[in-house]
Amino acid sequence: MFQEFYYWMYTRLCKIKSNDMPALNAYFLIMILQAFNIGTIFVVVNYFAKIHFAKNAHIYQGLSLAFVLAVINYFPLYAKRDKIFKKYANVSPKRKVKGLIYFWLYVLLSTIIFWTAVANLVPQK
User: Fold this and answer.
1) How far is Cα 92 from Cα 90, in angstroms, rounded to an integer?
2) Are 7 and 27 in contact (CB under 8 A)?
C-alpha cells in the first residue's frame, strides 16, 4: 500500500519544476503522513488515559518516532524506488484513477483527522 502511495507522491512531486529530488521528498512526505497517523493514536490514547509526560518528553518522543519511521521506510520504499517506479508506471487507466483516489483520500483524511484530534483533544494550558 505505501509503495503505491510513494509512487503517486513521487509522480505528483515530479510535476513541480523546482523540485530536484522528488524521490527523497516523497519519502519524507510519506513519513510525515505516517507520523500524523501515529500521532493521532497517541493523542486519542492520551486523552482517554490522562497520561502526563515530563516537560520535554514530547520532543524526544517525536524525534524517536521520526527516526524509527525513517529506518522502517527506507528499505521498502526509498531503497527500492526504481523497482516501485517500474512496477506502477504501466498500470491500467482504471487502476490509476482508483489508486489516485485512494492516495488523495489517505492524504486528506490523515491530515484532517490529525489536526482535528490535536485541536479538540489536547488540553489547552
Assistant:
1) 7
2) no
List the chain domain ranges.
2-14+22-119
Asked whether the predicted pLDDT for residue 124 surpasses 80, the reply is no
* Dihedral (CA of 54, 55, 58, 59) sign: negative
| C-beta contacts of 39-42 below 8 A and 24+ residues apart | 39/65, 39/114, 39/118, 40/110, 40/113, 40/114, 40/117
Model pLDDT for residues 24-40, shown as the tens digit of each residue: 999 999 999 999 999 89
- Cβ atoms < 10 Å from Cβ of 33: 19
C-alpha cell at 18: 523546482
